[in-house]
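PROTEIN DATA CARD
Card holder: Annexin
Chain length: 318
Origin: Brassica cretica
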Amino acid sequence: MASLKIPANVPLPEEDSEQLRKAFKGWGTNEGMIISILAHRNAAQRSLIRAVYAANYNKNLLNELDKELSGDFERAVMLWTLEPVERDAYLAKESTKMFTKNNWVLVEIACTRPALEFFKAKQAYQARYKTSLEEDVAYHTSGDIRKLLVPLVSTFRYDGNADEVNMKLASSEAKTLHKKITEKAYTDEDLIRILTTRSKAQIMATLNHFKDKFGSSINKYLKEDSEDEYVQLLKTTIKCLTYPEKYYEKVLRRAINKVGTDEWALTRVVTTRAEVDMERIKEEYLRRNSVPLDRAIANDTSGDYKDMLLALVGHDHS
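Structure generated from the sequence above:
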């Protein structure tokens, strides 16, 4: 359920490229033109625009945007214009660097993307950075966190659906999870194996068994130890695998409600989910906060950056 609004008659990429070229020329950049084009084209259309722009003007569109724009607006436009797998590769790389390290983003990418898309993001990572995501994650983590994150980013899950769930297995693995969690054996290899290798449909069935059998959700059982970073990552893994819209709603709420907006988190969620499940995230945000997401964004941001984000969540005026 994407929020992206694409015009009924999309101009040819040659026309879009020409308009973007004009937006960069003359006195001052025409930011409104950039938003009206790029924020209303899907990934395939944006990819074509980049290819045509390079062919017609012998220039890299991303470099042009980088040169002409600045601040949070530039970051939003640049992230959005990247191919989704290139974007994930970039976000993952940022998350393994010393000064921008973010284990939560690694969990987010590994657990919310379809298996093939995540695999392609890892290929893009290798092509761009000449190293594998797995080795970078292993190098930049240690102890229990490494024990969870390395298999999480190494897996190629089966994208099974609910019809293919093994209920007997779900029941027995629910018991295994309950036993390990009540023993506080959070780093047990069976617990990690189940969460890092089973299909999302199988995990959902296992966690439903868990709740039916033991009276509470698995994350409620983990709550008492949730000050621990490893346990927080475990809870995030479960949330991203089962209810990504709830996970993203919380990221947005924290980004918007904290003193001084966390623009990086806000930009990341809007640009990565606008073509995926933003409508569900918006519903969840409204249910949880009694304020529509577009109004929360409008109240917390300004200028071209605000206009770009509102366009991506489907609430601009075009």
